[in-house]
């Protein structure tokens, strides 16, 4: 076979590999060849490979691939673990007025029980991403679920007005577990799932955390009523903490027994080739530097951080915003938060399925970002109308697009940075989100105290507008890492 027989050749209807006899394979083989399309780089004006890259990229030999039914078990266990951690993030924030009185402290201190999740993530994400690349996904998930379990049991001792410091310690341990969670969905999806379901799998992985947040909005106001008797209040708080600790323990046991690193056979040709790359050829530091020099990706990092940081601020301060206009409505504040997240989960699933079908990453991301901005403005200007049913509707619209954006950012990052590690790109996205989450939560809290909720929500809307503009910027060229990768196979 001649050298040119190993190269891809472009045509009007696809890409094919010439065989020994020069005959092109069937259409299904073409589709199999493009199995890596989920991770192919994006062109300047569309979400397909640039013709010049297609015409010159050599083919990789086909390898055996297989989809295992237990991939859904892996996804379910991870989602449950992520759900448990997401619930504990909002245990305090959604009933902040109750915990402020219980611990006899101010609202800022209670806000920090949520914001510590953001603060912990920033210095720890790089070392955890290194562990993910060096030790693998199973070790990261095991350590994370163990920390989640330990933090939950620490908090069972904090149902006492004098134990605020211990409550902060428990939240700190749980926040460290979060670092071991947020970069996993895209990694798990690529290791276990096929081309036509990887975006959906990533969305479901993200939904685990969102489900936990939804439960965190709903359950604490029900389990911990706003009663005057401190002893009775301590009893209800203790019940909530023991329930969350029991669930975290069960999930930890499942992770130890059931969770696997990867299937025996890879699900896609892309993963098959990735397994053949010797570990010594991969440099974690070089990967980080390539990502930091990838301008389209860095634009996404900032715009993603702006969007998700706004979501974190709204979630953390939701109780304060609702109680300001609707006093005594702690339970409905939780239900509004639940509505925001449930609507967002529906949005995430729809967006994931849409991406699997269309691969229109840039266009979908821009549309969802713009609608997030519109939803934020509608929510801001209707919050003080005096009708809770209006807040439920506008909150649902906001959540559908703002929370629905979360898996879009992960998947778009993979498209912009392939073949870099999915965990590394996701980690940098989440780091940006935590930084903006701290900034926006503190700033919006002070603005609400000084000028009210409308001013605070307009403040967030301004940054969503900036993020929308950044998302709309067109890419001029392929990232250097992609160019190097496309032309380096032999």
From TrEMBL:
One Gene Ontology molecular-function label: heme transmembrane transporter activity
Catalysed reaction equations from the record: heme b(in) = heme b(out); ethanolamine(in) = ethanolamine(out); choline(out) = choline(in)
Pfam families recorded: MFS_1 (PF07690)
Residues annotated as transmembrane: 72-92, 112-132, 162-182, 194-219, 239-259, 297-315, 335-354, 366-382, 388-408, 454-472
Signal peptide from the UniProt entry: none
BP GO annotations: erythrocyte maturation; heme biosynthetic process; heme export
Main localization, broad class: membrane
Entry membrane topology: Multi-pass membrane protein
Assigned keywords, A-Z: Cell membrane, Endoplasmic reticulum, Erythrocyte maturation, Glycoprotein, Membrane, Mitochondrion, Phosphoprotein, Receptor, Transmembrane, Transmembrane helix, Transport
Subcellular location: Cell membrane; Endoplasmic reticulum membrane; Mitochondrion membrane
Cellular component aspect of the GO annotation: endoplasmic reticulum membrane; mitochondrial membrane; plasma membrane
Keyword Kinase set for record: no
InterPro entries named among the record's database cross-references: FLVCR1-2_SLC49-like, MFS, MFS_dom, MFS_trans_sf
Keyword Iron belongs to the record: no
Role according to the record: Uniporter that mediates the transport of extracellular choline and ethanolamine into cells, thereby playing a key role in phospholipid biosynthesis. Choline and ethanolamine are the precursors of phosphatidylcholine and phosphatidylethanolamine, respectively, the two most abundant phospholipids. Transport is not coupled with proton transport and is exclusively driven by the choline (or ethanolamine) gradient across the plasma membrane. Also acts as a heme b transporter that mediates heme efflux from the cytoplasm to the extracellular compartment.
Family: Belongs to the major facilitator superfamily. Feline leukemia virus subgroup C receptor (TC 2.A.1.28.1) family.
Protein name: Choline/ethanolamine transporter FLVCR1
Species per Swiss-Prot/TrEMBL record: Anabas testudineus
């Amino acid at each position: 076979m001649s050298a040119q027989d190993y190269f891809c050749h472009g045509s009007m209807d696809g890409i094919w590999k010439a065989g020994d006899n020069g005959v092109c394979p069937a259409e299904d083989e073409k589709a199999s060849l493009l199995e890596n399309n989920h991770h192919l780089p994006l062109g300047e004006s569309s979400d397909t490979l640039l013709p010049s890259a297609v015409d010159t990229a050599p083919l990789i030999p086909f390898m055996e691939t297989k989809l295992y039914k237990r991939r859904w078990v892996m996804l379910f266990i991870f989602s449950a673990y992520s759900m448990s951690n997401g619930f504990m993030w909002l245990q305090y924030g959604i009933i902040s007025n109750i915990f402020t009185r219980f611990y006899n402290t101010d609202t800022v201190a209670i806000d920090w029980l949520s914001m510590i999740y953001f603060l912990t993530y920033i210095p720890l994400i790089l070392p955890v991403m290194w562990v993910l690349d060096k030790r693998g996904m199973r070790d990261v998930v095991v350590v994370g679920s163990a920390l989640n379990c330990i933090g939950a049991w620490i908090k069972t001792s904090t149902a006492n007005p004098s134990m605020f410091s211990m409550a902060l310690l428990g939240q700190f341990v749980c926040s460290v577990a979060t670092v071991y969670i947020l970069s996993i969905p895209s990694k798990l999806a690529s290791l276990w799932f096929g081309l036509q379901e990887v975006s959906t799998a990533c969305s479901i992985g993200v939904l685990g955390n969102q489900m936990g947040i939804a439960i965190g909005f709903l359950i604490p106001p029900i389990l911990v009523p706003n009663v005057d008797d401190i002893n009775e209040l301590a009893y209800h708080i203790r019940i909530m903490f023991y329930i969350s600790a029991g669930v975290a323990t069960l999930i930890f046991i499942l992770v130890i027994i059931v969770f696997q690193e990867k299937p025996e056979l890879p699900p896609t040709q892309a993963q098959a080739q990735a397994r053949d790359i010797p570990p010594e050829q991969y440099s974690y530091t070089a990967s980080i530097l390539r990502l930091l020099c990838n301008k389209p990706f860095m634009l996404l990092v900032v715009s993603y951080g702006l969007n998700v940081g706004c979501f974190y601020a709204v979630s953390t301060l939701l109780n304060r915003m609702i109680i300001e206009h609707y006093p005594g409505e702690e339970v409905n504040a939780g239900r509004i938060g639940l509505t925001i997240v449930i609507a967002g989960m529906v949005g995430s699933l729809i967006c994931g399925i849409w991406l699997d079908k269309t691969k229109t990453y840039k266009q979908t991301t821009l549309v969802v970002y713009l609608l997030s901005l519109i939803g934020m403005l509608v929510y801001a200007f209707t919050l003080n109308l005096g009708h809770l049913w209006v807040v439920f509707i506008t909150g649902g619209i906001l959540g559908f697009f703002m929370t629905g954006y979360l898996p879009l950012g992960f998947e778009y990052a993979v498209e912009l940075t392939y073949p870099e590690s999915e965990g590394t790109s996701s980690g940098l996205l989440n780091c940006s989100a935590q930084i903006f989450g701290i900034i926006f939560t503190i700033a919006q809290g002070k603005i609400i105290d000084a000028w009210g909720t409308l001013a605070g929500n307009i403040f967030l809307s301004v940054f969503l507008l900036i993020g929308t503009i950044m998302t709309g910027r067109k890419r001029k060229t392929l990232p250097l890492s992609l160019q190097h990768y496309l032309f380096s196979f032999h």
